[in-house]
Amino acid sequence: MFIYFLIFFAKIIEVSLATVRTVLITRGEKFFGSLIGFFEVIIWLYLITTVLIGINEEPFKMVSYALGFACGNYIGCILEEKLALGLVTIQAIVSANDGLILAKILRSENVGVTIMDAEGLKEAKKILILHVKRKRKSKVLRLITSSNIKAVISLSDTKTIYGGYGIRK
């Protein structure tokens, strides 16, 4: 029975590490991604040899492995959200009248804002472009939504930004 729990928890750790490693590498953190990959492979090699030996006699090894994989994906996603590595670009489309007001609110909280003129179906619009660290994403979104200014908000992951205000790499 102990071996099933060992396989299950080791697989959770291995897959969670794989998720974090993938995020680190895609965000440009090659060294830490590679370091995590080293430990990930050691765990995987141990696991695969443990699971394959006697698998016909103990099919619950497969079940433990598969459950660990599924749970590891889930936990890895939670870890990635908590780490919040990288940058996000937020675009807020607001009426032309509200654009400067919202920019002032955001700038008072040290958020860099670029304003562009835009054209909507019925009125002139402003597009506010913000580049923020993912750790600040929720706070910035709360600022926008709590301002009671009607906005269409879109978010996109951003790999690299050169220059600008309020972001240092």
Provide a compact summary of the structure:
The chain is an alpha+beta fold and 169 residues long.
Describe what this molecule looks like in 3D.
By secondary structure, the protein is an alpha+beta fold. The protein has two domains: 82 residues; 72 residues, Alpha-Beta Plaits (2-Layer Sandwich). Helices cover 56% and strands 19% of the residues. The protein contains five helices and four strands.
Offer a few descriptive terms:
elongated, Alpha-Beta Plaits, alpha+beta, 169 residues, 4-stranded antiparallel sheet, 2 domains
What is the strand and helix layout of this fold?
Elements: H1 2-26, H2 30-52, H3 60-83, E1 87-95, H4 96-108, E2 114-119, E3 124-133, H5 137-146, E4 152-158
Antiparallel strand pairs: 1-3, 1-4, 2-3
Helix pairs in contact: 1-2, 1-3
Shape: elongated
Measured on Cα atoms, how large is the radius of gyration?
23 Å
Kindly give the count of domains.
2
Give me the strand/helix succession.
HHHEHEEHE
Indicate the percent of residues in helices: 55-70%
End-to-end Cα distance? 48 Å
* Strands ordered across the widest β-sheet: 2-3-1-4
- Strand percentage lies at 15-25%
Extended strand count: 4
As residue ranges, the low-confidence spans are: none
Number of helices: 5
Q: Output mean pLDDT.
A: 90
Structural class: alpha+beta
Describe the sheet with the most strands.
Answer: 4 strands, antiparallel
